[in-house]
């Protein structure tokens, strides 16, 4: 039996802002019959995560491409692998059977052929939650927020927390975890509606639209008159500089992402290093993979909060393989609210 597989590739390396013409829809036939002794599996993709870091993989050159395997460069015409949820339709691997639900690295397409048993994939229990949760709040977005906040920032109750890109896939969860832990939390976002969402639905103590602030340092001084203890940084550049100026002694900065640099390499953060030294500020970059040791705690805590309604899952879902380019491009234009993903099929 054969199926038609539609998938997205890049036409050329993407340096600068991504645009629709950088991407190409391809169509191929895929046999669902595996050779005897094969260790391959074929999955039907259900939900695929859309993440800003993928842009660095599409560039002609980025230092991130040599740092860790999942950030390796993507060449034109190659499959674009990404985190997602799928259903097994054929398996030569004894660990997986037809109809198993799996989560891990799949592709920007309707089906994924995963070869040689070296794939990053695991079966999962939906635990009564929507399958999409595995891509976001119960997946790497959630683990990034949880590990970055608790492992890197090591919060204390009552501390003052600032979150940039606070309506994004990670930022919204950091703010919610911080509030549930007992911190004072302020977030920034790029629209009036997003600011209202942070305050009215997610329980942030305050929030502001950074696009309406001509002086970010003065804005943060206004929102944090007693200083910032923890800054969860998703954007880098001027926002990081402003946060460091307003930080208290022994402040902590968890650098989750620097999306402002992804499309403009000249936008480099230049925090006042005298402040860093004399205030003894810790600035640390991290990846979700660094915090797999807390995954059981993260999963238990997060599912408990979801079931009691104390934690909200924000999802922004596009539909169909054709929507991959626009969904991805939208990340860099502030179009998404919460975890961005593409839905390819129903279970």
Characterize the structure shown.
This protein is an alpha/beta fold. Helices cover 25% and strands 27% of the residues. The protein contains 10 helices and 15 strands. Strands 3, 4, 5, 6, 7, 14 and 15 form a 7-stranded mixed β-sheet that branches. Helix 3 links the parallel strand 8 and strand 9. It is globular, with a radius of gyration of 21 Å. The model has no long low-confidence stretch (mean pLDDT 96).
What's the arrangement of secondary structure elements?
Blueprint: E1 2-10, E2 23-31, E3 41-49, H1 54-58, E4 81-91, E5 101-107, E6 111-114, E7 121-123, H2 140-153, E8 160-163, H3 171-181, E9 184-189, H4 192-200, E10 206-209, H5 216-223, E11 228-233, H6 237-245, E12 247-255, H7 259-262, H8 273-278, E13 282-285, H9 295-308, E14 315-319, H10 324-331, E15 339-343
Helix pairs in contact: 2-3, 2-9, 5-6
């Amino acid at each position: 039996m054969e199926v038609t597989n539609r998938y997205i590739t890049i036409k050329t390396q993407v340096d600068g802002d991504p645009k629709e013409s950088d991407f190409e829809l391809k169509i191929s036939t895929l046999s669902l019959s595996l050779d005897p002794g094969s260790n391959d599996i074929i999955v039907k993709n259900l939900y695929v995560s859309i993440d800003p870091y993928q842009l660095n993989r599409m560039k002609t050159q980025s230092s991130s491409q040599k740092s860790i395997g999942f950030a390796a460069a993507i060449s034109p015409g190659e499959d674009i692998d990404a985190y997602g949820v799928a259903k097994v339709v054929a398996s030569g691997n004894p660990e997986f059977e037809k109809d198993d639900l799996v989560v891990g690295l799949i592709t920007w397409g309707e089906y994924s052929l995963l070869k040689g048993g070296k794939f990053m994939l695991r079966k999962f229990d939906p635990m009564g939650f929507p399958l999409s949760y595995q891509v976001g709040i119960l997946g790497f977005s959630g683990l990034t927020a949880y590990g970055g906040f608790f492992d890197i920032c090591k919060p204390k109750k009552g501390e003052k927390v600032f979150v940039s890109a606070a309506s994004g896939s990670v930022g919204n969860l950091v703010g919610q975890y911080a509030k549930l832990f007992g911190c004072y939390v302020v977030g920034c976002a790029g629209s009036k509606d997003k600011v209202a969402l942070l305050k009215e639905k997610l329980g942030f103590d305050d929030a502001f639209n950074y696009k309406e602030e001509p002086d970010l340092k003065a804005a943060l001084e206004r929102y944090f008159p007693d200083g910032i203890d923890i800054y969860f940084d998703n954007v880098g550049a001027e926002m990081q500089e402003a946060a460091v100026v307003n930080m208290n002694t022994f402040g902590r900065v968890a650098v989750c992402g620097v999306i402002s640099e992804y499309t403009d390499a000249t936008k480099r953060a230049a925090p006042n290093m005298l402040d860093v030294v004399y205030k003894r500020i810790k600035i640390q970059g991290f990846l979700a993979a660094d915090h797999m040791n807390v995954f059981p705690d993260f999963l238990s805590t997060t599912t408990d909060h979801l079931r009691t309604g104390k934690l909200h899952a924000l999802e922004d879902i596009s539909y169909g393989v054709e929507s991959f380019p626009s969904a991805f491009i939208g990340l860099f234009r502030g179009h998404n609210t919460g975890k961005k993903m593409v839905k390819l099929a129903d279970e």
